[in-house]
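Q: Got a minute? One more chain.
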Amino acid sequence: MPWPWSNKKVFGLLLLAVVAALFLLLPIRGSNLATGTVGWTSQGCFVRGGVYAATFFDSQISAHERQGATLWGSHCGNDASTGELRSAPFAAPTILELFVAGYVGGAERPGLKLFLEREDNHARVTMRLRREPGEMWVKLRWWMDADVRGKKVRLVAIDNETGPGGWMGVSNPRSLSVLNYWRQELKSWSQTMGTYLFQLGLFLLPGLALASVLTARKESQPLAAIYLVMVVICTGATLGYVSFWLFFFSRGWGQGFSYVVYFVAAGVLVLQAIRSTAAIKTSFALIREPFLYATLAGLCYTSFYFLFSDPFFPGIGYASDRFFVDVLAADNVIPMIFAERIYDRKPVKPFCCGDWLSSDRPPLQTGIVLMERPLSVMKNAETRYELLSSALQCFWICGVWCLLTAIGTERRRIRQVLGFLIFSGFLFYNSVYTWPKLLAASCILFLLSILFDIGRAKRALSSFEAVLAAVCLGLALMAHPGSTFSLAVFAVLFVKLRKLFALRQLALSLLIVIAFYLPWSGYQKYVDPPGNRLLKMHLGGVIPVDARSTWETIRDSYHLHPWREIVWYKWSNLVFLGGKDFFDSYGLTARDGAAREKSRNAQRVYMWNAVGLVNAGWLAWLVLLMRRRQAGRAIPYADWLIAAALANLVFWSLITFGPYETQTAHSSYADILLLSIGLLSFVLTLPRVVFGVLFAWQLFNFFAVWVWSLPARIAQPISFEWPMVITGGIVTLVLVWMTLSPVEEAPVR
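A: Always. Here it is, folded:
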């Protein structure tokens, strides 16, 4: 077969690739201003090299970029030292670049100041920082206002702080050309998006290989699409869990396991592509849509998450700084800290974040991070972790797709549900604030999909389905313990479908779940005990670590309170689900930064506000009820999904000690997704124009309240990360088109 392209086209593409590589990969360094020490003045303890001893350069800053940099700092052996530094005068450039270290930029230390001072009128231009660099030199840039450019200015750094973290470090200023600025932004964008896709591909690779083998062996009776999707995700997650234990015992074992798994998976895919090309194409075509949605949503979320900051600077704490004034708990960083401790063979005791223990959170996400660690393509561990774990959270989309497919939903309805939910502020935030709650929710939805599939077909559970269901449950438990609050309804469903389960299959499923749980239970008991803090916190209302067992704590807590107070506690839990800021779910109060932040807080904390505009489904349900249209369901079993979610929420409210304990952070996110899907069924029965208005409103809330806003204490930046803006905008348009475009195909099975 002749080569389809001419030599000129091939040569042109190669030349374009080389030019793009040179444009992005050649070193980028600003022109030094006010070099050396001539013309600089310092008072107190502001000296060259005066930084905390352990301060290091960000791994993304090359030796070439550090050439000609003069480094100053106000740390003279302790945080109590103070001083002032003034540079030699220089002409303010269009773009100013500095290396900065220490704790300047935080609202907690107002005595640390960094600004430019004009020579002619002594006006100050504050150098705003998005967050404190800490014990790391980071590279920052600022666009100068038109009235400052070209004017003689001095760089001034003042340290009047004497408490903990009371120091800062700065370099001599630099001028960065606009071309180099764009080169840097494009370089950061390409590294970020490339790393995101590479890590997502690594996670999916073993599962795709296994799915290709299963498809080739079952060509006469192929697996349904939902099972292929589950196989792909559960394979990568299970291997990650195994990887955790291998790395725990030996880094060499873990690294060897990672290399072997990826090498074998790539080889299997190549062989299957050669031997069974048609089967591979068929299987990939079946599962393409959910993974396409998950990938597009991840790229959209990543673009808008890093809208205001270079992805390589903000660090793992950025999820808190990006959205809220109040500093949030470090739940999103615990898996990364755990992974780095194990990989670097450092002690896990003491752990982090106050008195939290490594055994307080299950290790599934930690294991997945560890498994991909040997094949890292990015030096910045925090950004690498953020990208991978955000991709994992976006699998909630695959969970919703599998559930909708399992209950027989039309494809166009599936697209409408996914499109509407992707632009939920709650799901956006919890996909980038990367605690593994949405990962756990996806596994719960997989399990529910299996039960619905066999229930609708009224056929016995196969051994394959029993194993897969048990793996889904084991992974959910090892992702986040909050997933257990969704299991109440499964007991009811199990009783209803009990005739479809064989005793032998149930025993096998139980053994698999125990195999997931038992090693972690041993870790909690023998490596970093007691490991039951979350159970005692939620079920017994006791926060500090103590030596009592879970049951002793619960018993003692209930004995300490009269029954009337206990009843009030449970009632307060139920009432708290409704929230207290009724209209803060919809962007209606988005008048200014403070109001938008209040709305974000409400949507983050309260169940009613988290569901947001989907609550219109209650009104649609009332309309159908008054018209007595029993068949008005866009999604089959919508009533059951709502009832299941509400039953789980009531169970959660009663079993949780209280009071006011039922904030979304303590819940199973599977219940929020179930409730949203069920309510969307009634929304979709409304006229198409009404759905269009609600969808436009959802987009407004997404962008006005979540994407374009920063916390009230942070002023809006002078410039955006424009490649991120463009990418996010393009992906948004694609997702909107996919949501609203007509689809005439039959439901996927």
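A: The mean pLDDT is 87.
Q: Perfect, thanks.
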